[in-house]
Amino acid sequence: MIVVMGATGATGSALLHRLTELGIRTRALSRNPGRLRTRLDSTTLSRTEVLAADAADPASLRAAFTGATQLFLTMANSPAQVSLETGVIAAAAESGIGHIVKLSAPGAGPDSPVAIARGHHTIEVALRSSGPTCTVLRPYAFMQKLLLLAPGVAAGGIIHGAMADAACNYIDCRDIADVAAAALTRPEIAGHTYTLTGDRTYSHPQLADLLGSLLERDVQYVDLPGADLHRHLTGTARVPGWLASHIVEIQHMATTHPEEPDDTVTRILGRPPRTLEAFLHEHLDLFRGAPRPRI
What we know:
It is globular and about 55 Å long. The chain contains 14 helices and twelve strands. Strand 1, helix 1 and strand 2 form a beta-alpha-beta unit. The protein has a seven-stranded parallel β-sheet, sandwiched between helices. Strands 7-9-11 form a three-stranded mixed β-sheet. Strands 8-12 form a two-stranded parallel ribbon. By secondary structure, it is α/β, with parallel strands linked by helices. Helix content is 46%, strand content 17%.
């Protein structure tokens, strides 16, 4: 039995789907099981046990972990992430979970210029000392997060950022999920730390050019000082202040820590990662102004 936390997110839901394809018994946890059930396709739902559990409630976690052997742990970035994830890890270890696959962040370390990455380092330290075998996945920027740019592109053909012409790694959450599934089902993959990227890097100007080519219209990248991007995110985009700070930090890090793709996904999965061009083509209607589906 494999337990999946974060099953409502892009990576967690993709992992549930992949494990279902492999015929693996899964248990998905959510504070709102009814909402989670509405987000799963019928085949995945029919083969997944959905239980109520709250990361802030150790008793509910221990009950949900009963009888399980492995855990996939991913949670949305937040100021409470360190305390919540370390609590989950402790409950999993107490419940006899033997292997934990954690979704972390690239460059996680005590001296990272990105606060969220420093938090992931703290969680990783707790994970490695908890007892179970641990596999750590450190993916770069999710392609799915680029969908947040769709309203600005649709309305004005504009992408805002603070990266100048620095290159960024992007990876499809479905590839992350496939690597997680491999770590959960192939013992030789478990117990290591993996950095995950797509097949190539893109600067924001290159991203704008790619979108413009696919949309057959002009798309421009507007580079802003970090403070101005923060104001744009908190004002126009109504992003919480801590998240705006995180976005500015990771974009600044891209300008000071050059990013290069690696072949980890190909080595583990035996195929190349999904391309950014294919991902954007799949979601072009959103960049043309179609409403994003709400579940």
